[in-house]
Design brief:
By secondary structure, this protein is α/β, with parallel strands linked by helices. Helices cover about 40% and strands about 15% of the residues.
Length: about 475
C-alpha cells in the first residue's frame, strides 16, 4: 500500500505493523525513497542491509513474535556506535580497531527487537565538536536552508538530518556536552539526553568516560516517549511507569524555572524571543513559571571554555591506543585536544572534583520547580564556510555548546523541543533540564508542553525543498 510514514507517529506505525496494515518491508522502502544524497546525512548508507532486516522483522510478525515496540522501525545510528556488518570510524578517516567494533547494550536492545538499521550517520571527528563539521567525510547540510550550506549541529551531525529527510524514523546519538540536543535543535527535532549512567555506553566510542551519555533524536516528543520506553532498561524491566506519568501529567502539575541569566543572554536574533513566546503560551495555559537561579550553569560554562575534563580524556585515549589516528586529526579538533590535554594530573583531578561539587549544588535548585528552561542553542546555525578556519570555528563552537553543557556537567537529564524559527528562518529549540534520573517526569512534562504548544511540525512547518548539490 502507499502510505507516508512522515504523517504517522512511532506508536501508530508500531500498531500498523502489528495489525498487518503496514509491513516492515514497505515501511523501509518508503524511508529509502526519502533519502536525499545532497543532504549527506550518512557516512555509510545500507539500504540492502535494511531491507534484509525488515524482512526478518516481517517474518517474526508472521510467526506472532512481538519482540518489542521498535520491531521493523528504521533507525539511523551515529558513527560512534559499533554495529555488526558496518564499519565504525567515529568521524576519523580510518576505521577503528576491533576493540571498538563490538555491539553494546543500546544497539543490543534494538537488535533484540528486530529494529532496522538504515546506516551510520556522520559525526564530528571523535564527537569533539558542537557544530557538526567534518573535513574528512564532509559536513551534512542543514535542510532548513535550501540555498546556503549551514551546519546541522554536532556532534551527532547526520542524525537530525536523517529524520528531516525521512530516511529514518528514530536516530541514535551521543551527548557529552550537547551532541544530541544541538543537532536536534538546529534541525527542528526533539533530542533527549539521558542521565549519566542511565543507559550503558559500552559499544560506543568514548570521548569522555566522565561525561558521555547516550540519547535519541526523534520527530516529536511522543516519539521520544515511545523510543525511551523501548530502549531504557528500567522501563523494560519494571513496567509502565513512564506511560502512567505521561497520561497523568497536566498543566497544573508542574512548575518551570527560568534558570540562569547566562543561558538567555547574547543569543542570536529571534532565539530567546521565540522561547519566551512559547513560555508565555504555557503560562496562558496554566503552567506556573518562576524565576529560579542556576548559578552552577555559569561555572559549567567556564569549565567548557578551558576544556573541562573532555580534552584531557580524549587526549589520553588517542595517545595510548590510537596514535596513528592522532596524526590525522582535523585542525579544528586537534587544536582543542592539544590545549586541554596539556593540563597536569592535579588540574585534571581538580576539574573532576569541581564537577562533583557543582552537580551536588545544582541538585538542590529543583526544590521549587520540576524543570528549568532555556534556549537550547544560543546561535543560529552558521554557514559552513564561516566556520572552516580554526579562528572562526572556536568561538562559534563554544557558543553552540554554551547552553547545553550545563546539563552534562551538572549531572542532569535534558530534552530540547522545537518551538519556532529565528530571524534567519532556522529552527529554535527550548531546552528543559531535570534532576538526575528524572527522565520519566521530564518526558511527561515535555509531553504536556507539546500538547499545549503543538509539535515541531505544527509550529515550524517543514524544511524547504532542497536545492540539490553534488554530495
Amino acid at each position: 500500500m502507499n502510505f507516508d510514514p512522515a504523517q504517522m507517529s512511532l506508536a501508530a506505525i508500531a500498531r500498523a505493523l502489528r495489525d498487518g496494515t503496514v509491513r516492515a518491508a514497505a515501511l523501509v522502502e518508503a524511508c529509502i525513497e526519502k533519502r536525499d544524497p545532497s543532504l549527506d546525512a550518512y557516512r555509510e548508507w545500507q539500504p540492502e542491509l535494511a531491507r534484509e532486516q525488515a524482512h526478518k522483522a516481517d517474518a517474526a510478525f508472521a510467526q506472532a513474535k512481538d519482540l518489542g515496540t521498535l520491531q521493523g522501525i528504521p533507525v539511523s545510528v551515529k558513527d560512534l556506535y559499533a554495529v555488526n556488518q558496518m564499519d565504525i570510524f567515529a568521524g576519523s578517516p580510518t576505521a577503528l580497531p576491533l576493540l571498538w567494533q563490538t555491539e553494546g547494550a543500546v544497539i543490543g536492545a534494538l537488535r533484540a527487537q528486530h529494529a532496522v538499521f538504515t546506516g551510520k550517520t556522520h559525526t564530528v571527528e571523535f564527537a569533539f565538536g558542537g557544530l557538526g563539521v567534518n573535513t574528512h567525510w564532509g559536513t551534512p547540510r542543514n535542510p532548513w536552508d535550501a540555498q546556503t550550506h549551514r551546519v546541522p549541529g554536532g556532534s551527532s551531525s547526520g542524525a537530525g538530518v536523517s529524520l528531516c529527510e525521512g530516511s529514518a524514523l528514530l536516530a541514535l546519538g551521543t551527548d557529552t556536552a550537547g551532541s544530541v540536543r544541538i543537532p536536534a535543535s538546529m534541525t527542528g527535532n526533539v533530542g533527549l539526553k539521558t542521565s549519566y549512567g542511565r543507559w550503558p555506553i559500552n559499544g560506543i566510542f568514548p570521548l569522555s568516560p566522565t561525561l558521555d551519555t547516550a540519547g535519541t533524536l526523534t520527530r516529536d516528543v511522543a516519539d521520544a516517549v515511545t523510543a525511551f520506553a523501548a530502549i531504557d532498561p528500567h522501563q523494560r524491566s519494571y513496567g509502565p511507569r513512564l506511560s502512567r506519568e505521561v497520561s497523568q501529567c497536566s498543566a497544573s502539575d508542574f512548575c518551570i524555572g527560568t534558570g540562569e541569566v547566562a543561558l538567555w543572554s547574547d543569543c542570536d536574533e529571534g532565539i530567546a524571543e521565540t522561547v519566551q513566546v512559547a513560555l508565555t503560551e504555557l503560562a496562558d495555559a496554566g503552567v506556573r513559571i518562576i524565576e529560579t537561579p542556576l548559578p552552577e550553569a555559569t561555572a559549567a560554562i567556564e569549565l567548557l571554555k578551558v576544556g573541562s575534563v573532555v580534552s584531557a580524556e580524549i587526549d589520553e585515549l588517542l595517545s595510548s591506543a590510537l596514535v596513528p589516528w592522532r596524526e590525522t586529526l582535523d585542525p579544528v579538533v586537534s587544536s582543542r585536544i592539544r590545549d586541554g590535554g596539556s593540563i597536569s594530573a592535579t588540574e585534571y583531578l581538580q576539574r573532576r572534583r569541581r564537577l562533583r561539587e557543582l552537580s551536588s549544588s545544582a541538585a538542590q535548585r529543583f526544590t521549587d520547580c520540576q524543570v528549568m528552561v532555556s534556549p537550547t542553542v544560543a546561535i543560529s546555525p552558521p554557514a559552513l564556510e564561516e566556520v572552516l578556519a580554526v579562528e572562526q570555528y572556536r568561538p562559534n563552537n563554544i557558543a553552540a555548546l554554551r547552553n547545553t553543557c550545563p546539563a552534562n556537567y551538572l549531572s542532569l537529564c535534558a530534552i530540547t523541543i522545537p518551538v519556532g524559527l529565528d530571524a534567519r528562518g532556522m529552527p529554535v529549540g527550548m531546552q528543559l533540564m531535570a534532576p538526575h534520573s528524572h527522565e520519566e517526569q521530564l518526558l511527561a512534562i515535555a509531553t504536556c508542553i507539546e500538547a499545549i504548544l503543538g509539535s515541531g511540525r505544527e509550529r515550524l512547518g517543514t524544511p524547504p525543498l532542497p536545492v540539490h548539490h553534488s554530495p
